[in-house]
Amino acid sequence: MFGVRGTRKGVCELTLSTQHAGLEEPDDRTLLEALRNRDPDALATLFARYHRSMVRLAMLYLRNSSAAEEVVQDTWLAAIEGLPKFKARSSIRTWLFHILRKRASTHIRREILLTTILSLRSKSIRDPLARRFSASGNWAVSPAHNSPTPEEQLLSREVSEWVRNAIDSLSFRQREVIFLRDLEGWSSEDVSELLRITPAHQRVLLHRARTTLYNLYLNYVSTSSSQPRNNP
């Protein structure tokens, strides 16, 4: 075996082997052969190469760091178990991210079902606060701050919030494409393969996403510059 425990915690405890520091990273074919030979260094290489990107993509789907980590850990376990059946018709990265998307979709469906059940129960109880929380106990919609602190008024925080809101305004498929292309640096071909869309459709989605964000940015700059700021 790879030396990975059959638990989610075991997957997270993978660390890089220092004896390979500075060596050229193996290509997919070499890495796959090593994985099939149960080489623990090969699994550590795969983990270091893709884990952070997988967590970021899971966050795009789930909007919850704990849920994202859980789904990614499930993905690693599923990948290890499914490795003997992997036919290498796609890259290892695309294969991993396909598993991740399926796991995230399953998690979302489960959360929707649980939320629906809790919603039905809350209606019978007539709890006025029930709708304010998700099934996990977090705010369904963050409450507005009537009295923002000075820190919340800093420009960096304001811009960060704007970026999140702007990306959230895109369609779900547009968010996927612009995340993979512009934030993760994937090629057009890889994104099309992962999302199972044509390259032409991928280009249209990316163009529309970029255009929308650019127009929102122009409006944001125009609005911000027209608003007077109080001098201290």
Indicate the topology.
Blueprint: H1 8-12, H2 28-36, H3 40-62, H4 65-82, H5 92-125, H6 155-168, H7 172-183, H8 188-195, H9 199-226
Characteristic terms for this protein:
9 helices, 65% helix, Rna Polymerase Sigma Factor, Chain: A, 232 residues, Arc Repressor Mutant, subunit A, mainly alpha
Can you describe this structure?
The chain has 232 residues and is an all-alpha fold. It is 65% helix and 0% strand. It has 9 helices and no strands. It has helices at 8-12, 28-36, 40-62, 65-82, 92-125, 155-168, 172-183, 188-195, 199-226. The chain is elongated and about 65 Å long.
CATH architecture verdict of the largest domain:
Orthogonal Bundle
The average pLDDT value, as a whole number, equals 76
Global structural class: mainly alpha
Helix content: 55-70%
Q: Give the CATH level 1 class of the largest domain.
A: Mainly Alpha
Biggest sheet features: none
The CATH homologous superfamily of the largest domain corresponds to RNA polymerase sigma factor, region 2, helix turn helix motif
> What number of domains?
2
How many distinct helices? 9
The end-to-end distance, rounded to whole angstroms, is 64 Å
**Beta-strand fraction estimate:** under 5%
Radius of gyration: 22 Å
- H-E order: HHHHHHHHH
Task: Report the count of strand segments.
Answer: 0
CATH topology of the largest domain: Rna Polymerase Sigma Factor, Chain: A
Q: Shape from CA axes?
A: elongated
- Low-confidence stretches at least 5 residues in length (pLDDT < 50)? 12-23, 120-130
